[in-house]
Design a protein that fits this description.
It holds the Pfam family Peripla_BP_1. The chain contains 12 helices and 12 strands. It is of the alpha/beta class. The protein folds into 3 domains: 66 residues, 434 Repressor (Amino-terminal Domain); 129 residues, Response regulator (Rossmann fold, 3-Layer(aba) Sandwich), CATH 3.40.50; 129 residues, Rossmann fold. Helix 10 crosses helix 11.
Amino acid sequence: MPDDEPTAAARPGPTGRGRRGAAVTLSDVAREAGVSLATASRAINGSATRTVRPDLQERVLEAAARLRYSPDANAQAMARGRTSSVGLVVHDIADPYFAAIAAGVTRAADRMGLTVTLTSTQHDPAREPAHVELLRRQRARAVVVCGGRRDDEAANAAMRSALAEFRRAGGSVALVSQPLLGVSTVVIDNTGGAHALARALHGRGYRRFGVLAGPADHLTARDRVRGLLTALTGLGCPPHPDAVVASAFTRDGGQDAMGRLLDRGPAVDVVVAVNDVMALGALAAARERRVRVPRQVGVAGFDDIPTLRDVTPSLSTVHVPLVDIGEAATQLALGPAGPEPRLLHVAGSVVLRDSTPGPGAVS
C-alpha cells in the first residue's frame, strides 16, 4: 500500500540542518522532507509490507543527501525483513577445500551486492543447526551449507528442521553435499570420480592399491571408497582388506592412516586418499619413514585443492571446480524458488601428475 501525501503537520523544515552538534537522525530527515517519520523510514530503509510513492521517496532521499544522513543497517534489515548477508556454514575454514568454495560464494555474493558471514563447525555435525539458527536470528538473506553428511539420521533430522525454520522465516538455502535434506543442492559425483581415478591409475600399471578411506560414517568418503573398490574389483585387482585404512577426513587423519598402512599393512605400489588434505598427510608420513614418493609408492588424492600447486611431487587427483561450485551454490540459494528443490550435478575429471608416473617409471 503506498503512503499518502504528507499532512499539514508535516511541512518541510529548515533546509540542510539536523540538531545542532548532534548526528543527523531519521527524524531530522523526515522534518527536512516534510513527511512523517514512518514515511521517511520506508523511503530509506524499505518495507516488507508498505511502499512509498515515487515523488515522496525522491523528496526523502534528497533531504537525506542534503543532511548527509547515513542509514542504519540494522534498521534497514528490520524494515525489510532480511539483511544483505549470505551465511556460509563449513566444517573447517582452514581446509583449502572449504576455503576454495568460500571464495566462490564470496565472489557470487559480491556480484549481487551482498556480504558473506562465515561460520565453521570444526567438524562437529551437532553444531550445524545452531549455526543456521544464529544466521536466522541475524536475518541472513540466504545460507549455504558446505560439507558431506554423516550416516546419522538424528543429526540429519536436526539439520532438516533448522533449514526448514530458516526458510519459514523468509530465507533461502542451498547445500554443497549429498541431497538428503530436502533443499537445493550442488551434488559432486564422488563415486564416478573415484571410479575414473582407479581406472586411470590402473592404466599406468598400478596393481597393488592402498586406500586411505576416511571415517566409515562420512558419506563423501564412503562414496569415494565405493567408486575405488568397484572399479578395482572390476579390473581384477581389489585391494587387500588390510590396505583399506579408516581415519579422520583431515590432513592428520591421512598422515596417521598412511603411517599405519606403511608400518603394518601389505605391500602397495600406489595409495589413494579420499581427499587431497589426507593425501598431503600421507606424503608427510612417507617422508617420516623415508619412503620415496613416487619411486617406491605412488600417492593420489581427490578434489584438486589450490595448494597442490606448491606440492612436490605434484599430486595426482580428481579435479573438482571448487570455486565454481561455491558460485553455483550461492546462485541456487538466491535464485527463484521452485516447487521442488533443484539439484546441480557436478562431475570431476582425473588429473595425473608426477606423484603417480607408474611403477618402475622413476629410476
